[in-house]
Amino acid sequence: MMKFVACILFASVVQPRLVRKRQTPCPEVCDTSRCPPSSDSCYYGVVKDYCNCCIICASGERDICGERGIGVCGEGMVCDYEQGKRRHRGTCVCISTEPVCGSDGRTYPSLCRLRAENRRAGLSGTPPVIQIQKGHCDSGSLNPSSMRYKFNFIADVVDKIAPAVVHLELFRRLPYSQQEVPVSSGSGFIVSEDGWIVTNAHVLSNKQRIKVELKSGAHYDATVRDVDEKIDIALIKIESDKHLPLLLLGRSSDLRPGEFVVAVGSPFSLQNTVTTGIVSTTQRGGHELGLKDSDMEYIQTDAIINASQGWKNVH
């Protein structure tokens, strides 16, 4: 009998306290002077309290939310209540639930987390964090549904051809001296695994030594094997005991006006420079270009190519 009475007394003490906490009335007039001081670390933004009076820090993801001061969710979030407990405690969840990639290279589980990090960066004086793309940071060029995957075909071409494009540095020996000085540069591309390289004939004029540098950083001395000044093409060769990347020569007769062009070369010694354009025409006669003695046909393109810097690999 005594235990039963004690339980009743305990319940009568606790229950009024809970009721008073849940039903704390809002003031009839909002007096902001009585509001607590605002915090400097409201990473999920600021909101007005449940009485729509004081400015408080918004609750973040997975924080408790609900009625009567439990918490108010920040921008882009809603209070998710358990079924059957609509007017009690809930949890703040972000409306946008897919991961996003930030400008800091990190993947955030939601847009709300990224916004919180951006506010944190602003308060600490570090660079802002903005959304770069939806999805994980490492999936931009690999995710088939991403814009980068669908439309970056030029980058795919460059990835394939760049290892076979070489940079040429040409030297000449000074008169009455054995000292060599670099006098010009150019580019070319490897056409066979045993080291044959195509470049421009005019690049090799009056040069005594040719140094070839691959994209991998490997260096070789090259020898001139054949030169055709009429079509401005030369063949040089390097000796390597390693497997060399190569490109196959295409057929100009297969080209169509309007096709995309990707050109890779070393203009002004700037290695692996990429330019793009289209094929304007495939059979431009030399007489149309003012070359009276030319019986050749030329491919016209609007890709930016600096002819004085040697062969530029075109795909």
Automatic annotation (TrEMBL):
GO terms for cellular component: extracellular region. One of its GO terms (biological process) is proteolysis. CDD domains: KAZAL_FS. The keyword Disulfide bond applies. Keywords: Disulfide bond, Signal. PROSITE patterns: IGFBP_N_2, KAZAL_2. GO terms for molecular function: serine-type endopeptidase activity. Belongs to the peptidase S1C family. This is Uncharacterized protein. It comes from Albula glossodonta.
